[in-house]
Task: structure prediction
Amino acid sequence: MKRIGKKRVDAAVELNITAFMNLMVILVPFLLITAVFSRITVLELNLPSLDAKDNQQQKIKLQLELVLRDKSFDIQDANLGVIKSFSRSSDDTNWKGFTDILVEIKSRFPDENNITLLLEPGINYKTLITVMDHVRSADVVQFTTVETVELFPNISIGDAEVYESPAAVINNQPATTKTGIK
Result:
């Protein structure tokens, strides 16, 4: 017996991509709009290299450091010590006076672009960012115009030594931390 078979005719089936196209029509503009609003500012921080000690011995120059404490900002040179101590409170800081000090240092050392921020434990993030903004540049009034002057754009961050009160040093008491734990 001979089988009589029907020839199968495979018709081309069209893909229904309408739902996918609708999704793309909505998704692409949404992603483009949100990409504009989600820009992240990246700050470049220069961490000291391992060869920094060798370079320091060859050439001694200004190594500007700013120590952020709860009650003061101490501007100092790593080699010479404290240049200027700027008192402040946690609620109010005289940013104009602080900027004037940095502008004066920059006028004496115009080639210096590096500064190291040393933070005591307990300094909040908002204070750190505000200090970084003031250290990087300043607005200086000259005659009738306001000019933005670049101060110290190369910023490094580190930990400061915990400041001990003079009474604790005299009485040979260990320094207490912010939480009161010895």
About this structure: The beta strands are 64-68, 72-77, 81-87, 114-119, 137-142, 145-150, 154-159. Confidence is low (pLDDT under 50) at residues 165-171, 175-182.
